[in-house]
Automatic annotation (TrEMBL):
Keyword vocabulary terms for this entry: Amino-acid biosynthesis, ATP-binding, Kinase, Lipid biosynthesis, Lipid metabolism, Nucleotide-binding, Steroid biosynthesis, Steroid metabolism, Sterol biosynthesis, Sterol metabolism, Threonine biosynthesis, Transferase
Annotated catalysed reactions: L-homoserine + ATP = O-phospho-L-homoserine + ADP + H(+)
Family in the record: Belongs to the GHMP kinase family. Homoserine kinase subfamily.
Pfam families named in the record: GHMP_kinases_N
The protein, known as: Homoserine kinase
Domain GHMP kinase N-terminal: 65-149
Biological process, per Gene Ontology: sterol biosynthetic process; threonine biosynthetic process
Keyword Magnesium annotated: no
The enzyme's E.C. designation: 2.7.1.39
EC top class named in words: transferase
Top-rank taxon, per record: Eukaryota
Length: 349
């Protein structure tokens, strides 16, 4: 059996829109067996079973499920049209979908690693990141999920030819679901070195409180509400803060006032307030002064989860935010998480 474990992640951490990612301690797990036989009745030779978050909505056919579609993309780029006979994938997913905790990033990373394992492709992590970036095109969640920890990420300036290959519509990258047109042609391989990451230190005292509302915000929708251009003042505001963020969160003992300041943002959070009732009030009123123990607070990824970084008083801080959401009629759960330093792991038993 092959076990693949991929952590969830929180992207942006305030000013680092599409740049900063933090892998956190909830893991998507795949248990994979390749049962050798002459033939398989399963479409594309793959049987999927699933438990956990999204069990009532996630498709279980290999050409529709994001994890197995991603694996098929990787396999087809290497001349393998289907899974080896017969591949059985059991998915255990505790990461809530569409909440800003990188469920799709984890699914994409898991799919690339699945393709690499069952196809015996021997891809490096850096090459796997290229495959991930052909599907989830911002690097913050996928790099954190793959490499683990607190990361800064960037996309390279590619040649015009590689840029157009990287920007090929997703419908031409991922295999067509049943009923779609499958031309039988190999999909476009990713260019090399699409993106990179750098790991930053994380102060061991700081933990992450995730307050998770019981409704979904799709990342696609949360990106549509963002402007296509920004004022110089707003851009400089974010640059001034993101320059401080990695050292502020790495310094031990943490300086709460400095972290709070370094987590302010004018690039994405203000525009997403219409999707998340109560967001501005929560971000402005929960501060290190009003709530000792708190270091900083932000929207997690594209939301609606709120990420409060703190060294103490975790339950007290969570309850205040739960109560603020409750005033707008929104129910939440909360979890105390820690950085997942190791990133994606593969074990064999
Ligand atoms: N384990 C999974 N198996 C299959 N599909 C999944 C899985 N996890 C997520 N997905 C797909 O990803 C979608 C959610 O992705 P989306 O980018 O909208 O939110 P998110 O990744 O949870 O949040 P964010 O990107 O803000 O952190 C789901 O609706 C589903 O289609
Ligand atoms: N940087 C991305 C993360 C969500 O996947 C965003 O905020 O849209």
């Amino acid at each position: 059996m092959i076990t693949i474990k991929v952590p969830c992640s929180s992207a942006n951490i305030g000013p680092g829109f599409d740049v900063i990612g933090l892998a956190l301690s909830i893991w998507l797990e795949l248990r994979v067996e390749v049962v050798k036989s002459e033939s398989s009745e399963a479409p594309l030779n793959c049987v999927i079973t699933y438990e956990g978050e999204g069990a009532d909505e996630v498709p279980l056919s290999a050409d529709s499920n994001l994890i197995t579609r991603t694996a098929l993309y990787v396999l087809r780029c290497h001349g393998q049209r289907a899974f080896p006979i017969e591949t059985r994938v059991h998915i255990i997913n505790p990461i809530p979908l569409g909440r800003g905790l990188g469920s799709s990033g984890a699914a994409v990373v898991a799919g690339v690693v699945l393709g690499n394992e069952v196809g015996k492709l021997g891809l490096s992590k850096a090459r796997m990141l290229d495959y991930c970036l052909m599907i989830e095109r911002h690097p913050d969640n996928v790099a954190a999920a793959l490499y683990g920890g607190f990361v800064g990420t960037y996309l390279n300036d590619l040649s015009p030819e590689d840029t157009s290959r990287k920007e090929i519509p997703l419908s031409e990258v991922l295999p067509a679901p049943a009923g779609g047109v499958d031309t039988g042609e190999a999909p476009p391989e990713p260019p090399h070195d699409i993106g990179h990451y750098m790991k930053f230190p994380w102060a061991p005292e700081i933990k992450a409180i995730a307050i998770i509302p019981q409704f979904e915000v799709s990342t696609a929708k949360a990106r549509e509400v963002l402007p296509t251009s920004y004022s110089r003042a707003d851009l400089v505001f974010n640059l001034q803060r993101i320059a401080l963020l990695p050292s502020a969160l790495g310094r031990s003992p943490p300086d709460a006032e400095q972290i709070y300041l370094a987590m302010q943002d004018k690039v994405h959070q203000p525009y997403r307030k219409g999707l998340i009732p109560g967001l501005p009030e929560i971000l402005h009123s929960v501060t290190p002064k009003s709530h000792p123990g708190l270091c900083g607070i932000c929207l997690s990824g594209a939301g609606p989860t709120i990420l409060a970084l703190a060294t103490d008083n975790f339950e007290g801080i969570a309850n205040v935010i739960l109560a603020m959401f409750a005033k707008t009629g929104i129910k939440c759960i909360w979890k105390l998480l820690e950085p997942a330093e190791e990133g994606t792991t593969v074990t064999y038993s």
